[in-house]
Amino acid sequence: MNPSRPSPFPGLRWQRDPLPGFGLGLGMTLFWLGTIVILPMVALVVRPWGEGLHSGLRAFAHAAHDGRMLAAIRVSFTSALLAAVADLVPGLLIAWALVRSDIPARRLIDMLVELPFALPTAVVGITMATLYGPNGWLGGPLARWGVHVAFTQAGIVLALMFIGLPFVVRTIAPVLRHLPRDVEEAAGILGASRLQVITRVILPALYPALVTAAGMAFARGIGEYGSVIFIAGNQPYHTEIAPLLIVIRLQEYDTQGATLIGFVLVGISLLSLAGIGLLRRHLSYGTD
Amino acid sequence: MSRLLFALVVYLLVAVMVVLPPVLVFAAALSHGLRVAMATLADPDALSAIRLTMIVTGISVAINTVFGTMAAWTLAHFRFPGRNLLVVLIELPLSVSPVVGGLVWLLVFGTQGWWGAALERWGHPVLFAPPGIVLATVFVTFPYVTRTLMPMLAHNGREAEEAAVMLGANLWQVLWHVTLPGARLALLSGVLLTTARAMGEFGAVSVVSGHIPGLTETMPLHIETLYNGYQTVAAFTMAALLALMAMGVVMARNLTERRHGRTENTA
């Protein structure tokens, strides 16, 4: 970082700046941001209130009693949360294998972990549906055991876990790599068992990273569409995710209904990101 | 013993969770042989989807690269009121569901939207046509160039650029000969990430495309149409092609990241 010199006249600072291009750069940035992000997002926020405060409030009151919409948001919310938390276990194991162990083929694993990120969501969607479908490589044997994944919420969670895994591994691994080893060694010398070192020393130091990892996976998962709709079954009230209900409302020409769901989804994402920030700050007291 | 167990658990996790799905894509595509798979790609609708994906990706990446670079330059080199707000707003599309990224364009350009009626009089459709698909793709891939490039420009500082200005260089000469050469790999990495995301975008595009085979279907949308029409081999062949393209781009990006010595988070 190399900020320009503080000036007694903040408003006039750029006029004395030796570097040209501030006006043009800011203008282009505002034009780009204004047309592509701010204009459409304002439309999303304003739309429910389009016919005045009263009709907007009535629309929200109506939505609060729309069982199908509430169910869809609940399905998206719980699936994303479950997937994010469940991803921490394989995520932590793989991150540990990458940065703290000496198992063979670590570089290969490092590359393979990137695969879910590289696959487009529609490809992930039809693949998970086929893999866990009744005749699939994994779905077939599971069905014989009486476990049905496809077209249930378990399928939604599995698809989201696949999508979220690279984010979790990539968030945990660098933190794990930089944990000071001497603390672990000291704990060992003081008589802590291996398990105690893990649960009392390593995991607490990782809490902020784990929260961030799960939070990122959650924020992504709650809006996921392409990777989920093929495996989900899409049964209203049970396996219908909120983004799919937006699409269905649009097909019914119910723009208002679709906008309300979109509004709530964006609200949940932003609130959860803010919550993660707060929780992270709270957890990292005393660790750094 | 416990080390061996740990290694086995990790290998099994990676194999089942991460490797099996992409393997299935290619196995399903080739289940009736390579010739059958290639024949499905020769279908006119398939070719049209491939062409549309390339065009949309090209335009979207160009827009976000030009504006994203200028945004990174402005935000990295100047301090001004509202700067932090701009950074937050640029990242906003990352926390918006792709479907919402399509929906918002309906609210602006749809028949019930702000400018829908005006557009209808003008006679050039935006929605259910390629321009809408480009807008949705630009929205979804909006922050990647800026957020990859900005830390690099900030890290490089502005002394070299100021020196170039003293020596008489104008803005374009500074950008072209000083700024960008110093951040070439970061820029490339951001562009490749944008490309990979743009090619595979599904949710946002699905809302604004209208799904007209041969006209407004991109590769991901065509995959959905084929899959729902029980043309499994064709669906997975298109999926395999798209996966190969995206994996190639992501792999190229990982190489550039490794070369500029920074393994940043993939988000």
From TrEMBL, chain A:
Q: Native species of this protein?
A: Komagataeibacter rhaeticus
Record's GO cellular component, any one?
plasma membrane
Could you tell me where this protein is found in the cell?
Answer: Cell membrane
Q: Which GO terms describe its molecular function?
A: ABC-type sulfate transporter activity
Alphabetically ordered keywords of this record: Membrane, Sulfate transport, Transmembrane, Transmembrane helix, Transport
Task: Specify the domain of life of the species encoding this protein.
Answer: Bacteria
UniProt keyword Transmembrane present: yes
Gene coding for it: cysT
For this protein, the record's NCBIfam families field holds: 3a0106s02 (TIGR00969), permease_CysT (TIGR02139)
InterPro entries for this protein: CysT_permease, MetI-like, MetI-like_sf, Sulph_transpt2
Pfam families for the chain: BPD_transp_1 (PF00528)
The name this protein carries in UniProt is Sulfate transport system permease protein CysT
Membrane protein topology class: Multi-pass membrane protein
| Protein family per UniProt | Belongs to the binding-protein-dependent transport system permease family. CysTW subfamily.
Major localization listed first in the record, in broad terms: membrane
Q: Which ranges does the record mark as transmembrane? A: 21-46, 77-99, 111-133, 145-169, 201-219, 260-279
Q: How does it assemble?
A: The complex is composed of two ATP-binding proteins (CysA), two transmembrane proteins (CysT and CysW) and a solute-binding protein (CysP).
The record describes the protein's role as:
Part of the ABC transporter complex CysAWTP (TC 3.A.1.6.1) involved in sulfate/thiosulfate import. Probably responsible for the translocation of the substrate across the membrane.
UniProtKB/TrEMBL annotation, chain B:
Q: How does it assemble?
A: The complex is composed of two ATP-binding proteins (CysA), two transmembrane proteins (CysT and CysW) and a solute-binding protein (CysP).
Topology with respect to the bilayer: Multi-pass membrane protein
Return the protein name: Sulfate ABC transporter permease
Record lineage: Bacteria, Pseudomonadati, Pseudomonadota, Alphaproteobacteria, Acetobacterales
Stated role? Part of the ABC transporter complex CysAWTP (TC 3.A.1.6.1) involved in sulfate/thiosulfate import. Probably responsible for the translocation of the substrate across the membrane.
Q: Which GO terms describe its cellular component?
A: plasma membrane
Q: What are the protein's GO molecular function terms?
A: ABC-type sulfate transporter activity
Q: Which CDD domains match?
A: TM_PBP2
Tell me the keywords, alphabetical order: Membrane, Sulfate transport, Transmembrane, Transmembrane helix, Transport
Any idea where this protein resides? Cell membrane
Q: Which InterPro entries match?
A: MetI-like, MetI-like_sf, Sulph_transpt2
